[in-house]
Predict the structure.
Amino acid sequence: MLVDDDGRNGWWRFTIKMHRVKLLTVNYVRTLGVYHTITPTSPVSTAWGYIESFLFWLLQDLGASGSLMGITITVAGIAGIPLLVLSGPIIDRIGHANVLFIGFIFYAIRLLGYSIIYNPWLCLIFEAMESVTSSLSFTAAVTYAAKLSSTTTDTSIQGLLGGIYFGVEREPFGMYSIYQVTHTYGNVD
């Protein structure tokens, strides 16, 4: 039996301490889960940055017209609408982590596909996959981060996730890769 300094039963202090340990453990697990949500977002945003930076250059080198470049954006946007509408049931059915993994796979398929196409119109197939890579996987990341964060940290976590996805990882790696290509191969005339 636990006894206080003054001889009374000290069980209530032990209970309060255990309650604090439990809260710290729950907060640590939530923080760890948010970390594991934000970490996979980094390579996904880098892949998105590569595609956004280099796709139109690739299409121009393949002889695409400006109209085709506009159609690629239209196809990607229209293909994303149904998946945004159905993202809730899809995420509930297969889970947040699995949706993020599927997004990785589709990014790999897109990047590989862009590297082997010879006809610029074939890019429309891979642009339709943007509905999975951008719409569905980012929705899964945002909803999982919201699920794991508390009401006081939700805005900060969402801002951090959006900043990593749309800014911090996307542009520096894209610019660095442009520098490496031009430094290694020189400017194309």
In short: Residues 11-177 form a domain with the Growth Hormone; Chain: A; fold (CATH 1.20.1250.20).
